[in-house]
Amino acid sequence: MRRRGRFSRRALAFLAALALGIPVSAQTDPLPSWNDGDAKSAIVKFIADTTSAGSPGFVPPDERIATFDNDGTLWAEQPLYFQFLFGIDRIKALAPKHPDWKTTEPYKSVLEGHVEKALAQGDKAVLSIMMVSHAGLTTGEFDKIVREWL
Question: Is the same domain home to 87 and 143?
Fold first, then answer.
């Protein structure tokens, strides 16, 4: 049975070699464990475009970065998702406009520096933090705030 949407070890090694500029021996199928389809085609095209000198999307080997995560995403997960870390910092930044947060969970725990207490309150608390920390912003405003945060 062929896996769908996951990298095999051979595919990961191939992609890492390409990203790092290491010569790779010719293969008939660079992602043999992948089913043919849009995702596979897009990855193969991206690799070809970024590694072919003269291509408009060419990236010199010394400027390439390869990032792989076990579940196929690029989200940082430890110690916390960076989206949640952003949410925590936004709660702190927005707190002066929301004095009631000093006595309202999960914001109270965040403001007191007890993130673990906020997390212990479950998904509803996490979602609440994320919602209020992202609410009321245009795309441009959000982009600016995130860039400043980073």
Answer: yes
Is pTM beyond 0.70? Reply is no
What's the pLDDT score for residue 20?
A: 58
SS3 43: helix
107 and 48, same domain (yes or no): no
* Nearest partner of 11 among 58, 68, 51, 50, judged by Cα: 68
CA triplet 37, 41, 46: central angle to 5 degrees?
Answer: 155
Q: Is 134 buried (19+), middle (13-18) or exposed (0-12) by CB count in 10 A?
A: middle
Is there a contact between 27 and 33 (Cβ–Cβ < 8 Å)?
Answer: no
Report whether pLDDT(1) > 50: no
Segments forming the whole domain that contains residue 91: 82-149
